[in-house]
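Dear colleagues,

For the upcoming journal club I promised to circulate an example of a predicted protein-ligand complex. I picked one with L-captopril because it came up in last month's discussion. The inputs are reproduced below in full, followed by the predicted structure.
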Amino acid sequence: MLRALPPLLIPLTALSLAACGPKPAPEKTPVKETAKVEVKIKGPTAEEAKAFVAEADAELRRLFVASSEAEWEKNTNITDETEAAAAKANEALMEYLGGAIKKATTFADLELDPETARQLHLLRVTASPPPAPADAAARAELASIGAKMEGIYGKGLHCPPKASKLAKVGAKLAKEKKAKGVTDEQELAGCMRLGELEDVLAESRDYELQLEAWRGWHGLAREIRPHYVRFVELANAGAKEIQYADLGELWRAGYDMSPADFEKESERLWQQVKPLYEQLHCYVRAELSDKYGADKVAADGLIPAHLLGNMWAQEWANIYPEVTPYAKAKSIDVTKALKKGGYDELKMVKLGESFFTSLGLDPLPATFWERSMFQKPEGREVVCHASAWDVTFSDDLRIKMCIKINSEDLITIHHELGHNYYFHYYFKLPILFQNGANDGFHEAIGDALALSVTPAYLKQIGLIDAVTSDEKALINLQMQDALEKVAFLPFGKLIDQWRWDVFSGAITPDRYNAAWWELRQKYQGLAPPEARSEEDFDPGAKYHIPANVPYTRYFLARILQFQFHKALCAASGHEGPLHECSIYGSKEAGAKLQKMLELGASKPWPEALEVVTGSREMDAGPLLEYFEPLQGWLEKENEGRSCGWSE
Ligand code: X8Z
Ligand code: ZN
């Protein structure tokens, strides 16, 4: 999705600080030739830079809004027309951006006021939409490929082969749909959408059936491959025109440090959490090996990627019943509680909002409730992948989700509302500041609040009856949390590891899929469930690849959210272990958070981090502190096992 604002994610881009990043070479000072004397024309002035930034703010606002409106239309109704309209709006935006970024470089050597300098910097590191070549035909092609790839993903429908186990599931669903009045012929013939295939992986523990669902969805991504190859060529050409080595370098330039330093920084954070992930992997592998047999899950090998309860094996909470540490001790089942409590989509979003307002933050505007999409509309193709928007960059907040009544989507609702509240508190800033301090911040806000969805909180709001506080119940609870948060870490890291190498040319198209699985092995310790070839394009089966949304943001967010949580807990007066804290109802925590949100991207991220945490460094310490009880338990449990895998 070459959306102006990565829809669900954040509006603009990954903008970042002034003065860092690859400094584009200033254009040569034009020299005027005359017959006898050479007269040097004066370079641009600080006043001109300021005027340019003001002009760019107005123009970008107009173009971003147009793009975002067209994107909303397309995302909530995928047709050839809406796809073409979105591509057209993005093309216009890309054209302006290309010229504006080049112009911004002409001010590079001037002494500027900090606001102007930062906006110019943020403009130069704009990553979304991707930089387009100046050539009009190439730019149009890039915009249309972007819309096309996201459309293919959004419309994805798998028709299971006759006589397969999955065909039976499809037939059952078709029957239910018919009774509900669904008219789509393919769906009535038993074809399945992503959400339904995901449900199979979430619920079934039949090895073959899970494999069929996994295979079905991954097979659809093959169609995306040729478009992606071309996308990489075009976006890289655009990045080169604005003096970056490739698109990956531009992405890494958005973190108020050099791209090379950011690479080291993300690696440092990964090394901090890797031992905990390896312990979790070791335990889960042993349990799955017991369950499916050592012929299917080797006790010291890689875990087949379709057995973790999730299409991408990115979060493993759905297999909690298979790996429960203490089956006889208490486990919290939020999904069951939601269903029992009569929660529907609207009630779930209201519950999410009530967490934010409990902190003293504003209620969502009335238009949020009128304009959001909470359910997949009948008879229309939509992008179901959850997203949050401020369509007009002026508090026009919305979310777009096909909500399921389960605990995973309750967390996602908090996640999306975190984006909305960021939008809400910075919408009065210049458009280039309407972004997260870095993109990881934007992804971490709602998640940080969802960490306060503790058993005590659930009891307080009447979702569960009692809180058990014995040691075994705690380990059970921590296991549920770790399957969500810790399991995700290597996945969050590897996606862009793959893309950085694809953009730099280190991974060529003839190795796209092989290299993907090498990284899945190296970071996650997973293997494909069956043989793959270069006809497959398994990375394309993950939304953010065809939609071109950078992914390191989620890796950073998993770490930052624990830093925010710890600091907000301290502000709320919490004493005791971090995993017991809920900031629900704390106006002090809310005020602190709001202060950071209001900054948007106006300051380098270490300053924003300092506002909440007092520290200027990203650090996985609070995450490790949160999981201390589980880490100790896992180490004991894994004694005698040979953990790890050959990378
Ligand atoms: O894409 C998302 C959000 C929207 S920004 C739903 N997430 C990542 C994913 O689904 O892969 C949230 C967690 C990671
Ligand atoms: Zn998000």
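Two points we might discuss: Residues 8-9, 415, 419, 443 surround zinc ion (ligand 2) (CB under 6 Å). The radius of gyration is 25 Å.

See you all on Thursday,
B. R.
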